[in-house]
Amino acid sequence: MNSPSRPRLDSGGKTRIQREKRAEIFEAALDVFAEAGLRGATLDRIASQAGLSKPNVVYYFDSKEAIYRDLLEALLDIWIDPLRQISADGDPVSEILAYVHRKLAMSREMPRESRLFATEMIQNAPRISDVLSGDLKALVDEKAAVIEGWAAEGRIAPVDARHLMFSIWATTQHYADFDVQVRGVLGPDREARRFDEADEFLTAMYTRLLTV
Q1: Which of 176, 164, 163, 175 is nearest to 200 (CA)?
Q2: Does residue 62 contact residue 46 with C-beta atoms inside 8 Å?
Q3: How far apart are CA 37 and CA 119, in angstroms?
Q4: Architecture of domain 73-210
Q5: What is the rounded distance in angstroms from the CA atom of residue 115 to the CA atom of residue 121?
Q6: Where are the domains of the chain?
Q7: Which one of 8, 95, 162, 203 has the fewest beta carbons within 10 angstroms of its own beta carbon?
Q8: What angle do CA 171, 175, 176 make, to 5 degrees?
């Protein structure tokens, strides 16, 4: 599987030290938010996780909400990017399978980010609902038209493109959001191979679904 790009969590106009400190805070906040959510997180806990003093954290962010918001904004861009890469000029089955592989790779390499996103969804997405019904919906509509065009041309089996995307999100992100359940059910003998096995299974499943 191709490795996903990491989100860019710094911004222009900052010194190297400022960028490094912000990156340290974001890294610690990911751990805290992934475990406790926004409600359970505190600046004290984030500072402790980062090995910094609370005043040092407050120098860069005035609240945990500010850290959370910046993390979500960075995550949303990287989360949406694999969908942008579906090309209307490519082979339909290969393009969709490549999307599945990219999403599974994100769950494998970015589990904390996936859980942070899932937590926001569970809470009815109060901070990003405008993006979900705006930019994300527009992108889904665009790619759904491509997929349904392929189906109309007989290049893939008939499929509801939006529910296909929901299915891909569910089957790939599950391995990050419910990792403890996956490992518990598979047992220690298969734990290390869980993502490779998932990749093989999902490839076979979606190939069967999409092949005419």
Answers
A1: 175
A2: no
A3: 7
A4: Orthogonal Bundle (1.10)
A5: 10
A6: 16-62, 73-210
A7: 8
A8: 120
Separation of CA 111 from chain center: 8
Q: Give the amino acid at 176.
A: A
Distance from the Cα of residue 138 to its chain's centroid:
18
Residue 34 has pLDDT above 90, yes or no: no
Instruction: Give 55-77 as a DSSP string.
Output: HHHHHH-SSHHHHHHHHHHHHHH
- Six token digits for residue 140: 């889904």
Residue 151 pLDDT: 98
Domains 16-62 and 73-210 share a fold: no
Is residue 184's pLDDT more than 50? yes
Could you tell me the two tokens for 125? 């997405």
Considering only CA atoms, which of 109, 101, 54 is closest in space to residue 82? 101
pLDDT tens for each residue of 86-133: 999 999 999 999 999 999 999 999 998 898 888 888 888 888 888 888
**Top CATH class, 16-62:** mainly alpha
